[in-house]
Design goal:
Helices cover 30% and strands 26% of the residues. The strands form two sheets. Strands 3, 4, 5, 6, 7 and 8 form a six-stranded antiparallel sheet that branches. Strands 1-2 form a two-stranded antiparallel ribbon. It contains three helices and eight strands. By secondary structure, the chain is of the alpha+beta class. The protein has helices spanning 2-18, 63-75, 131-144; strands at 28-29, 32-33, 43-44, 57-58, 80-85, 89-95, 102-109, 115-122.
């Protein structure tokens, strides 16, 4: 009996944490990405919260070359697919193999011609156990090579 109750509670938790497909807060407005929700595993180069902040990607050369390099890095990452691709903005959806959870990773090419801001967040839920930060560190390392 206890096992069934625990299973029901676990399933209800997963339903609340993992359901939905809201992308309403995504996109760039006035050269700003949406703020990270407080208490989430979101990371952003534009966050004022030090626990969610990561430095933006920096590059030399043209924005077009940086964009091509970034897209090359993303193209070999497991579960990545381009959802939105405009001249100064990219949104990549990362879908996990287990449970088909989606993380949205946004890149905004700043007007300064040398900075790429980003925001990486789970579409639903609160804790990602550091997954978004680790992913962005991997992207940063591969982009810098």
């Amino acid at each position: 009996m206890k096992r069934r109750v625990l299973l029901a509670v676990f399933c209800a938790f997963l339903t609340v944490q993992c359901s939905g497909t809201s992308t309403a807060v995504l996109g760039a407005r006035d050269n700003q990405l949406a703020p990270c929700p407080s208490g989430s595993g979101c990371v952003s180069s534009q966050s004022e919260d030090p626990t969610q902040y990561m430095a933006p990607l920096e590059y030399e050369g043209t924005p077009e070359a940086a964009r091509a390099r970034l897209l090359q890095v993303l193209s070999v990452m497991e579960g990545a697919s381009v959802a939105v691709d405009t001249s100064d903005y990219l949104r990549i959806e990362f879908t996990s193999k287990v449970l088909n959870l989606v993380d949205d990773v946004e890149f905004l090419f700043a007007p300064d011609g040398r900075t790429i801001h980003f925001r990486s967040a789970a579409r639903k839920g609160y804790s990602d156990l550091g997954g978004n930060r680790r992913r962005m560190e991997m992207i940063r390392d591969a982009f810098a090579r």
